Q: What sequence folds into this?
């Protein structure tokens, strides 16, 4: 028999002039989901949930045109439509006899719907968009869906020297910076949302990479009265099972970006402090907000933003005090570390064809042909001649040395026979500093005592000295 229902009894539905639009789903030849509309163009779904001795029970719910479109595009589940609190504070269960006549029903709250009557969580419409609905949803083209959810940015020239036009560089810089900001935010949002769902962070990173096309910003409207551009991420559910898992996150991404990043007053200390609290990691905060601040600080354009129906609007200004809260000035230690990041030396052995130039090897070639690698703190340097200023010391044989990199990131080069010791944080300076010391010690030695042991060491090394005009000097 049909389940007992905890709800109020009704004799009929309170909707007038219902007309079936289409049957949407069937099982073994029996209809299980139908779409109806009334004379006011409201939409209703009839979902088959129970039967007994020729009587059928249907769950009836109201559905907005937007949500119906999302459902038929596999972007919203049947569950989402039924339990849409805005459309359905109450649900209806209607019993039909074998002739289709209503013989009774119930008015219930969603919480009282029996569990066996609820669709599965992932009950999506897994078919192509019905051709019969193309005209019905003509205004719901993909571009219009993007525009409904888009953020509309406007760049206005700060002077009227060139009328309302904006330079191409300013337009390109804007698109580049807003994309950088959005991409950094989307990465942060994704990991914050799903970091506790798996311990495999490599898998999480791979999944995020696979979603690049779905979450990427798309231009969906543009005009050239000043520079006006609407951008949005894809709001639709894609076909793969993986995308369905992350669909809810993706559908709200552009709205969350607006709330967390775009909708801030950058001239207000309280907003700046809220940003710092929301994003306590200063480096992350810099990556998200610095590109946007660069747009706001442009010398050529002013920035404004709104949504499609203008319920959200914001123009921008920024003060140095608030900027320093959002992006603190780096310390001397940080500046030094950025200028001279710590490095390590790796010794590698790679098998390559004999005629292959090592500088032409791709990353894939190196990876595929790597025989051995190990970390070390030194590497060889070969010096065939020494040039400093106008002078060039041609050597009898090359000087072979070992450069050493210590734990502080400082390179050392020592030539003990000439008492030469140089160090620097920039490896490209090693040879220059070595040449300078060589030149100084050589001059001092030859001036003070050309018969000293040090002078003899120079005699063993130098064949001759040349200057720019290639005139040999006697040695």
A:
């Amino acid at each position: 028999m049909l389940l007992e229902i905890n709800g109020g009894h009704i004799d009929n539905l309170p909707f007038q002039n219902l007309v079936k639009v289409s049957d949407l789903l069937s099982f073994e030849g029996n209809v299980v989901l139908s779409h109806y509309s009334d004379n006011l163009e409201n939409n209703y779904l009839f979902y088959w949930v129970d039967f007994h001795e020729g009587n059928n029970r249907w769950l009836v719910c109201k559905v907005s045109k937007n949500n119906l479109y999302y459902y038929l595009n596999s972007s919203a589940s049947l569950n989402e439509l039924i339990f849409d609190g805005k459309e359905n504070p109450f649900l209806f269960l209607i019993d039909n006899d074998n002739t289709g006549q209503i013989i009774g029903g119930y008015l219930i709250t969603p919480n009282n719907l029996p569990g066996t009557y609820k669709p599965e969580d992932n009950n999506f419409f897994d078919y192509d968009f019905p051709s019969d609905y193309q005209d019905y949803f003509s205004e719901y083209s993909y571009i219009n869906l993007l525009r409904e959810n888009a953020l509309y940015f406007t760049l206005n020239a700060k002077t009227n020297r060139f009328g309302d036009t904006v330079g191409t560089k300013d337009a390109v810089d804007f698109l580049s910076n807003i994309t950088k900001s959005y991409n950094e935010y989307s990465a942060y949002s994704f990991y914050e949302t799903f970091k506790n769902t798996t311990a495999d962070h490599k898998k999480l990173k791979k999944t995020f990479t696979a979603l690049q096309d779905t979450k990427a910003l798309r231009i969906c409207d543009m005009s050239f009265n000043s520079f006006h551009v609407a951008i949005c991420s894809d709001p639709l559910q894609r076909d793969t099972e993986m995308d369905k898992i992350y669909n809810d996150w993706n559908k709200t991404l552009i709205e969350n970006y607006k709330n967390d990043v775009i909708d801030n007053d950058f001239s207000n200390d309280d907003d700046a402090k809220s940003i710092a609290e929301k994003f306590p990691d200063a480096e992350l905060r810099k990556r998200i907000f610095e590109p946007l601040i660069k747009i706001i600080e442009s010398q050529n354009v002013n920035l404004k933003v709104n949504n499609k129906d203008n319920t959200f609007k914001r123009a921008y200004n920024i003060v140095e005090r608030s900027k320093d809260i959002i992006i603190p000035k780096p310390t001397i230690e940080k500046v030094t570390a950025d200028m001279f990041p710590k490095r390590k030396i790796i010794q590698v052995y790679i098998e390559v064809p004999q005629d292959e130039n090592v500088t032409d090897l791709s990353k894939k070639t190196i990876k595929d042909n790597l025989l051995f690698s190990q970390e070390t703190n030194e590497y060889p340097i070969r010096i065939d001649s020494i040039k400093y200023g106008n002078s060039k010391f041609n050597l009898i044989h090359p000087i072979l040395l070992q450069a050493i990199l210590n734990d502080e990131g400082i390179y050392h080069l020592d030539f003990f026979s000439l008492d030469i010791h140089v160090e620097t944080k920039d490896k490209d300076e090693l040879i220059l500093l070595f040449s300078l010391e060589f030149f100084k010690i050589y001059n001092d030695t030859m001036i003070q005592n050309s018969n000293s042991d040090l002078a003899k060491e120079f005699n063993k090394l130098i064949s001759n000295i040349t200057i720019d005009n290639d005139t040999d000097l006697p040695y």
